[in-house]
Design goal:
It is a single chain. Helix 1 packs parallel to helix 2. Strands 1-2-4-6-7 form a five-stranded mixed sheet, with helices on both faces. Strands 3-5 form a two-stranded parallel ribbon. The chain has one domain: STAS domain (Transcription Regulator spoIIAA, 2-Layer Sandwich). The radius of gyration is 13 Å and the shape is globular. By secondary structure, the protein is of the alpha/beta class. The protein contains five helices and seven strands; from the N terminus they run βββαββαβαβαα.
Length: about 130
């Protein structure tokens, strides 16, 4: 989906979300959550730039959808605090890992079940987003 500061694509069994700063419209967010619920996915890759403005209800909705579907989360962000929080949450048993933009290759490698062609496509999407 496109047209807002939160966009996503489904590549194989990976939902690739791209989020820029600013509040995310609830209708856009719920369409994203519905795509997570309605597809047979294994990973949620969140690519972010800058500080995010995601409400508590939006965080809960996506967490519930990912937990229900058994998705592992991979976050790529330039925000050190966010990476630290994600790491702390992973210590509590959630399947989530965080990477900086300099570690993009590691984040792509974490999508273990994605094919080489899917990983290449995801990397291109990430690079275009990072440069935008």
């Amino acid at each position: 989906m496109s047209g807002s500061n939160h966009q996503w694509d489904i590549i194989g069994k990976v939902v690739v979300a791209r989020t820029s700063p600013g509040p995310i419209d609830d209708a856009v967010w719920m369409a994203y959550v519905k795509d997570i619920e309605d597809n047979d996915l294994e990973y949620g890759l969140a690519l972010t730039k800058g500080a995010l403005d995601i409400s508590a209800l939006q965080r809960k909705a996506v967490a519930d959808a990912m937990n229900k579907g058994g998705l592992a989360g991979v976050v790529v962000t330039d925000e050190r605090l966010v990476r630290g929080l994600v790491t702390a949450v992973s210590w509590l048993g959630l399947k989530v890992s965080a990477f900086s933009w300099d570690e993009l290759d590691g984040a792509i490698d974490a999508l273990k079940t994605a094919s080489a062609a899917e990983r290449d496509q995801i990397k291109r999407i990430a690079q275009v987003f990072f440069k935008s």
